[in-house]
Amino acid sequence: MTRPELWKGRGTAKRGALGLRRVGAVALACAAGAALTASCGDSESPNATTSTTSSTAASTGSGGEGGGTGGGATTATTATTSTTGVGGQGGGGGGAAYCVQTAPRETRGSAIALSPDESTVVAVNRDVGTVSVFHVDYGDGQPALTRTAELDVGAGSEPWQVAIDGCGTRAYVVLRRDQQLVTIEDLAGTPTTGAKVAVGSEPTAVAISPNNQHVYVANWVDGTLSSVDPATMAVSTIDLNGTLVGTNLIGAVAARPGLAHPRAIAITNNGDANDDDESVLVTEWYAQRTAPESADGKNSDTNKVGLLYKVAVSGGAPVAIQLPPVLSTGFVDHNNGATGCFPNQVGAISIDQGFAYVTSTCASPVGPIGVFQKGACTSTAGCASFGVGSVCSAGVCTLSCIQNSDCASVGGSCSAGVCAANTTDVKTTTHPAVSIVDLGAGTATTTVLDALFAAKTSTRMPHRPADVGFFNGFGYVAATGADAVFRLVTAGGVITDVGSATNNFINLRKDSADTLLRNPIGIATGFTQSFAFVANDGSRDVTALAFNVQAIAGNQVDDFRIAESSALPASGSQEDKILRGKRFFGTGLGRWSLKGEAWGSCAACHEDGLTDNVTWYFARGPRQSVSLDGSFASKDATDQRIFNWTAIFDEVADFEGNIRGVSGGVGAIVSALSSPPANTDRINTAAEVPPQQGLQGSSTDVADPLGQSAHPHSKLADWEEVEAYIQSIRSPRRPTGLVQADVDAGKVLFEDPAKGNCVGCHSGAKWTISTVFFPRGDIANAATADAATTSLSNQDWSLSLNGFPAALFPIKTAAFGGTAVLGTDSRMRFGSPPASEQIQCILRPVGTFAVSPAAVGVVELRQDMVTAGQGNADNGRGFNPPSLLGLSVGAPYFHAGNARTLEEVLDAMFVGHHTSAIAQVFVPDATKTKQLVAYLLSIDEDELAPPLAAKNGSGGDICSYQ
Q: pTM for this one?
C-alpha cells in the first residue's frame, strides 16, 4: 500500500475508527510493532477489527462546561485498568482510543497543524483562549478553508501549540497559562474538547511520536518534558535541568527547576511501527556562555552557544548538542568591524532528511549599536569640539566633517560640513538564523538568513523566525516580524539558496492596500499537496499558500484563500487597543525598522514582552534587556516602574528614541503620514521648548494625537496602544517542582529586617520600589536648577530621611540646599539632558558594578567599546532596582548579566548586594541560599507582594515630589 492510499475514505462515517488503538488482538499486534498493513489500523479493510472483548477498561472523568463523562481506554490486556481525567468543555475525562497509524514524516508541534490526509487544519488562538478546526477542500485545485468549529479551551488559558495524530482524528493542544494538555476529538466530524491533564509550568510545545505512543510537552519554566500516554493520559517527567548543569556552562550549581528552558519539539521518524528507536529533539530557548568577556568586550558576539537537547524515546539520559555562534555575519559596523552573533531565543525546529533545522534570533550585542550620527547635538554648546562657528542645527553640529571618511569608515557621507546618519550598525544587532544539525554526527552549523536575503536585494528580512516547515526538500520560515514566509533551498544540510525565481518572500498581505499586520506564528506544510497554511496571531486568521506560485493561494486578484480563525475585537475596545499595540511591538515593517525592511523590533529583545537575557553594550554601559512584565503593577496600570537600569525614561513613548536609533525606523511620533514613512515625518522632540524626550517634558504628550497642550501632536496613537499591550503582559508562572517548605523558609529570610531584608529594594505590587512618583510634564521634569521650585532638579533627597542608610545614597559630595550631609548631586533628578539625566534618587549602589565570576568577566564599557560604563564612581553610581517577577526565566542576573544563576547571585562575591547597608548581618549559607532561591523562583503574579517599604533604616524609597 502506498503512503497516500492510507488516507482514502477520510470524511466518511468510518473515519473516526481509522487506525485507532482499541483493545483486542489486532491492537496488541499493532502496538508490538507489526508492519503497517490493511489489517493493522485501516478501517476500510475487511480484515480490520475494533474488538473490545478481551479486556475491560474502567475509567471516570468529570465533564467541563457542556457536561459529559469520559473514560480512559487502554491497549489490550486481561487486567482491569482505571484512569481518571478531567474533561474540558463538552468533553470527557481520561484517555480515549488512540491512533496507531504511522505519521507520514517527522513530527513536531506548531501554532497550526495539518492532518496527514491534508483535509483538516487546526489552529490555536492564543489571546482568545480558543482552538479553531477547519475543513480543507481542494475541489478547484486551490485549498478552500471552512471553519467547522471554534472550541473554547478556557479564557486566558493561552493555547500555544497543537499537534494532530497520525490518523487525523485527534489533536493535542498545550495551554500555556493553564499548564495543561487538552485533546480535541473527532476533528473530521463534530470536533469537541476531550481530556485535560496537568503538565509542567508554562508549556510551550507539543509533539506526538510517529506511532502515537507518546505525546511530549516542553515545560518552558520547569525545564522538563512531560511524556503523556495517549491511552491513559498518564504523565511522566523527563528532567532537562540536570542535562544543562552537565554541560558545565552555567557554573557550579545543583540541578533544580527553572535552569533549563525547553521551547520547541520535533521527533524523528524512520517510518517503522516502533517509536523506541526515535529521538525527541528539544530546543533550549536561551544561549549559554562558553567564555568570559574579553578585556575589550569584543568577543561578546561569539562567546555563547545555543543548545539542542536530544532525548531517546526508549529512555536514557538526555544529551545536549551545541549550536555554534556565527563568527562573521557578513555585516560590519560603521568602523568596518566584523560582527558575529550567537543563537538565542531558539524557537522552532523541523527535521528533514536526517537534519534538524533550528531557528533563532542570533544576537550581536557588541557595540556600536543603531544609527551612528557624528556630531549629534542638542545645543550649540555640544559642538565646541568642532571649532568656532560650529552650531547645532537639526540635531547635528555644522562643520563636523570635511570629507566622507570623517563620518565613518563604512558608508560615511559628508555634505556641506554635516555628516549624514549612518545606518550600517542597525544591521548588526539581531539576525534571523538557522542552525542545521547533522543528526547522525551530532554536529551543527549556524547561518544568518538576513545576509543571504540582503544579497538577493530583498526588501524584507525574515525577522523573528517563529516556525519552519519543509515541503519537497525546501524549507519555509514564517517570520513574525516580517508578515512573510521565506523559502530556503537546502541540500545535504546546507542552505544553497534563498527565495525563488518568482520572489524573495511570500507576502502575507494581499496587496499594497492591505496594511493589517499579520504577525505569523506558525506554518504547516503539505504532505503531498504543494500548499501550506499559516497561523497569523495579529490578524487572527489562517492564510493558505500555493508553492507553485510562491504566493497566497487563490486567483491572486480577488479570491485570496484566507479564513478567519477567531473574530477580531471590536474596534476601539481595550482588547483592540492591546492587540494593535502587540502588533506594533512585534513588527519590523513600516515605521518600526530601517526602511520598513524588518531589521529589528521591540520584540526582538522582548519576545512575549519578556527578555532575551542578553547583555547589550548600550550608551550607558553593558545592560541586560529588562523583562517588561514588571513595568506596571498587574492590577494597577497607574503604578509604573521608572524605566531602564539607570532610570532614564519615565514613559513608554520615550522608547521612540530606540525605534529611531537602535532599529533605524521612522518612529511613531510624526507630524505627517507619508507612504512609505519618511524620516522627514518625524516630530523633533528635542527641538521643542522645553524639549520633550527622555526625562524632559512628556513624550506621551507629543505622541498623543488628541492632546491639548501647546506641543505639536503626532498623527498616530501607536505609543498609547503599545503601552496598553505592555500593561497586559503576563509574568511567567512559578515552577511546579518547588519544595514548599523551602519556599516558606525563603520568604521569611526575604522579608525579615534582621535577615535578608530584601523588601528594602524589592517590595510593592511590582516587586520593586522603583515607581514614577511625579506628574510627568514640563514642570516636574524641568532639567535646570533655576526652574520652578517644584522641579525634581531642585528636590533634595537628603531631607527627612528617617535614618535611611547613607551607604545607599547614589552620591556623596559637598553641601546642597543648606544640607551638610550630601552635595549638589543629591537631587531627585540629576544630569545634563538628555544623555546624562537620570532619576537619581532611585539608584542603589549595591556592589554589582564590574563584579562577576571569572567565567563571566563583566566588562563595563559603553557602546563605543572604549569609554567606561556608568554606575560606579561617577554621578550615576548604582542601578534602578528591577522587578523580581519571572526570575525563573531571567538568568543571567544584574545589570550586566554578572551572575549566571540565582545561586551565584547569593555568592560571597556579591556581598555588596545581598549584605548591603540594609542587611549587614545576613550571610546566606548553603541552606539559606537554597531556601531563598526557592522563594525567588516562586514569585509570580499569584504571590502576594510585601507592602512597599517606607524609608527608614531598613531601606525603602527616598524619592518624593512636592
A: 0.90
